[in-house]
Automatic annotation (TrEMBL):
It is a multi-pass membrane protein. It comes from the Bacteria. Its cofactor is Mg(2+). This is Diacylglycerol kinase family protein. GO terms for cellular component: plasma membrane. A divalent metal cation binds at E38, E86.
Amino acid sequence: MPVNPPSPQPRRFPAVLRQRAASFGYAFRGVAAALRSEIHLQFHAVATVLVVGLGFYFHLSPTEWALVALAVGLVWGLELANTAVEAVVNLVSPEYHPLAGRAKDVAAGAVLIGAVAALIVGLLIFGPRVWALIY
């Protein structure tokens, strides 16, 4: 009598891949929660849409797109980190404490520095093009 080979086991994603996929879900959930609650991040979202639209309108070069993407990513990343710092500080120090205030101020300062850097990138890339449209 012929012996049938054992039936193959159904393929499952290894646990590591499932965990990685879940971590992306948590990250997207965090971005969505911050977008719903943080007015500054909503401002950055509108600015991002405007900048991407201008980039398509002005036919940016790949290098210019890379600089714009880095600037946008920098600001978004710093804003999300600032939001996380504020949430943790509020959790561990509900009452005012000078160190809690300093932590929040420093995190906000990081966002400010990143936003100014992104503004400079935007002015260097879009400024001459917008200027040429106006004059």
